Amino acid sequence: MIQWYPGHMAKAKRILKKDLSLVDLVIETIDARIPKSSKNPDLNEIIKNQNKIVVLNKMDLADDNLNKNWIEHINKETDAVLINSITGEGASRLKSLLNNKYDIISKKLSQKGRKARQIRAMIIGVPNVGKSALINILAGSKIVTIGDKPGITRGRQWINIDKKVKLLDTPGILWPKFSDEDTAYKLAVTGAVDNDIFDFELASYKLIKFIRDINADFLKEFYNIDFGQEHPYDILPMIAKKRGCIMSGGKVDRNRASQLLINDFRRGKLGKITLEKPGDDSDDLSVS
Questions:
Q1: Are residues 32 and 114 part of one domain?
Q2: Could you report the per-residue pLDDT of 209-225, keeping only the tens digit for each?
Q3: Is the pTM here over 0.90, yes or no?
Q4: Helix H or strand E segment including 167
Q5: What is the DSSP string of 120-158?
Q6: Among the three residues 135, 169, 203, which one is the final residue of a domain in this structure?
Q7: What is the pLDDT of residues 224-243, one digit of tens each?
Q8: How would you class 41 by CB atoms within 10 Å of its CB: exposed for 0-12, middle for 13-18, buried for 19 or more?
Q9: Alpha carbon of 84 to those of 40, 56, 253, 258: distances in Å?
Q10: Are residues 159 and 217 in the same domain?
Q11: Given the DSSP bridges, would you call strands 52-57 and 119-125 parallel, antiparallel or unpaired?
Q12: Do residues 53 and 163 share a domain?
C-alpha cells in the first residue's frame, strides 16, 4: 500500500487548524479527474461548518460530461466551480462567487457596526492539485511558485487578490494513512504523491484497469493496440512495443513503459478521463 505523509504535512495540518480562526471562508481545491479521492477526509473534521467553496481544478483533463455531473452533485450542498488554473478558464465564475461572499460578509459586519474589510480565504487541498496556480490566476500575476511535483509549497503566505479578497496559500496535505488501495493509486497516477514513493509499474497496472473499466478505447486508440479481458500485466507490453520501450535482446522495458503511460495520462494525451463518477457507492463524494 502506498503511504506518504512527510513531516511538513503534519506540521501544516496543525497550523491549518489554528489559521481557520483567521479566515472567513475556505476554498477547497480538488482534482476534477478524481473528485472523491482528492478530497482529504481529515479536512472535513477540521473545517466542520466553515463557509466553503469547492474548486474542481484541472477541468481540461477531465471528462466534460462528468465535470457537469460532479458540479451538479456538489452544488446540492455547497458552491462549486470548475477551473483550469493554467488558462484561467472558470476563474471569472470563482471571482463572482468570492464577490458574493464579500457582499454577504460586509453586510453582516455593517449590521454589527463594523466597517467592511477584505474577506480572508484559505486555499486548501492535496499536493499538486493546482492551488498555487489558481492563486496566480486570481491575482493576475505570478506571485507564488508552481511546479508539477507535489510538495512545492511548504510554508503559508497571505496574498492580496484585490481590494475585496485576501488569500492564504497553504501546503498540500494528505492524510496519515490511506485505507483504500484504489484511492492511493489514483492519487499517485494523478501526481499528488511523490514519484519516488510508489512503484510505477504497479501503478501502471492499476491505471490500465481504471481506464479499461471506464472506456478501453482511450488506450486502444492512442496506442493503436487491441485487447479484450487480458490482465493489465499483459496489456503493458503492448503499450511498451508501440512506444519503443524495448531493451537489448527484445525484452520489454516495463519500467519505462509504465512511466510513459502515467505521464501520457497526466498530460491528457489519452483523452479527457475522469476516474470517478458521482453517485457510485464506492466513489461518492461527501461535501459536508
A1: yes
A2: 999 999 999 999 999 99
A3: no
A4: strand 165-169
A5: EEEEEESTTSSHHHHHHHHHTS--S---SSTT---S-EE
A6: 169
A7: 999 999 999 999 999 999 99
A8: exposed
A9: 21, 9, 34, 27
A10: no
A11: unpaired
A12: yes
